[in-house]
Automatic annotation (TrEMBL):
Transmembrane segments: none annotated. Residues 1-19 form the signal peptide. This is Rhodanese domain-containing protein. Pfam families: Rhodanese. Residues 155-182 are annotated as: Disordered. The lineage of its organism: Bacteria, Pseudomonadati, Pseudomonadota, Betaproteobacteria, Rhodocyclales. Residues 172-182 have a biased composition (Basic and acidic residues). Residues 155-165 have a biased composition (Polar residues). The keyword Signal applies. Keywords: Signal. It comes from the Bacteria. Residues 36-153 form the Rhodanese domain.
């Protein structure tokens, strides 16, 4: 039994030794996807309706929402529609990797609005479900909200949009999560 536990610990240590750190900056993510020979998949994990109003970068390979809005369920306490986890998220990521000839060991970088509510949890979820090199863009697409002054509450610092990286208010319909194409 002791040998079995030692073997399992060594096996686990060797698996985690090759895994990358989860956080990555927007600039680092953009640099990685510019390398055409790199095994990297950049995924926007926001609900497409959010993208429609906030903006999008065509540098993203695909949009696969991690959390989706249920417009039939209102959360009165928070004053928002209920969010639910996309039940097919891991399978949809696997399908995107397969489509590009990549394995589950490829680097999957997720990006949400701020990096915290969907970016980091989606990367952790992927790691727990067989994608050991899942990461997330720190500060996400829009960046952090300013805490003080006349711009308080506005997301005008860090993140993809505020780093001088390419983005547009327009969506790319070929990359968007669309129910009419599933």
């Amino acid at each position: 039994m002791k040998r079995l536990l030692i073997a399992a610990a060594i096996g686990f240590a060797s698996l985690t030794a090759h895994a990358v750190d989860m956080p990555i900056s927007a600039e680092e993510a953009y640099a990685k996807i510019q390398l055409a020979d790199k095994d990297v998949l950049l995924v926007d994990v926001r609900d497409p309706v959010e993208i429609m109003f906030v903006g999008f970068t065509d540098a993203v390979h695909v949009n696969v929402p991690y959390l989706m809005v249920d417009r039939t369920q209102w959360n009165a306490e928070r004053g928002v529609f209920r969010l639910y986890q996309n039940p097919d998220f891991a399978a949809q990521i696997k399908a995107e990797l397969d489509k590009r000839g990549m394995s589950a060991d490829a680097e999957v970088i997720t990006m949400c609005r701020s990096g915290s509510e969907r970016g980091e949890p989606s990367a952790a979820f992927l790691r727990a479900n067989g994608f050991p090199n899942a990461r997330f863009v720190v500060n996400g697409f829009q960046g952090s909200a300013i805490k003080d002054g006349p711009q308080a509450g506005f997301r005008t610092q860090n993140g993809w949009q505020n780093s001088g990286l390419p983005w547009s208010p327009k969506m790319n319909p070929e990359k968007m999560y669309r129910l009419d194409k599933r």
